[in-house]
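Re: [help] complex structure
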Amino acid sequence: MNLENTQVQMRKGILEFCILHIISRGEVYASDMLEELTSAKIMVVEGTLYPLLTRLRKAGLVEYKWVESTSGPPRKYYTITEEGLAFLNSLGLTWEELMNSTNQIISEKQS
Amino acid sequence: MNLENTQVQMRKGILEFCILHIISRGEVYASDMLEELTSAKIMVVEGTLYPLLTRLRKAGLVEYKWVESTSGPPRKYYTITEEGLAFLNSLGLTWEELMNSTNQIISEKQS
DNA sequence: ACTTAGTACTTGGCCATGCATAGTACTTGT
DNA sequence: ACAAGTACTATGCATGGCCAAGTACTAAGT
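Output below.
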């Protein structure tokens, strides 16, 4: 029951939401996402991101195509699917509700 | 990869935060917490709450005392400890940061 | 007295997910 | 050739929410 562990738990589910959103804005590959997540101070490592992308693809929420790179191996560029967009919308609502609920609770004063 | 599942994931970690906060506001027992969480639209069931309370107690973040009830079996009334208060403060910061980070990402427009 | 219903708490096992770690494959620079 | 950098893959672990079943105590009905 340490702080770091709880922080990890808080990120669960949110990550999926954030990544779907990033992909929905245009073609990106893994390193793009890592960069954006890091700049938003959401720490993510490869070992988390890649399996998640695989899950999203298997669920039909995203697709990818191989694109040759001028430096290094080819990259998987991801795009969101129709189904992914619908899912993203639902997640947006869920996030809104969760934020409201939590803020409602922590704004209650001592009774 | 269904919606309900992701909603569960999003709640992870947040729950701990919410419950600690509720306890910090005064003595409560499990049903009080369930009621408040439900009224804030955070769905929680017994099988989730009781193990969590046990974890919090083992970690020294909360304490409880048995109190006789006029109707039904005695109840465990929980209070927060010094250590729990400190932990709660850290979680508050973490929640703030997570909200900011997530909102930063989902507010980015199509590039 | 016995049964039924309601309340409070407990326990064991399942599953999804983030993460650590190690490994593969390709390209470029020296 | 070799090293370094980049991109992706695979395995196994720990955490924690949830389901389901169970225990224990009290109060009300007959």
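Residues 8-9, 11-13, 15-16, 44-45, 47-48, 51-52, 55, 69-74 of chain A lie near DNA strand C (CB under 10 Å from a C1').
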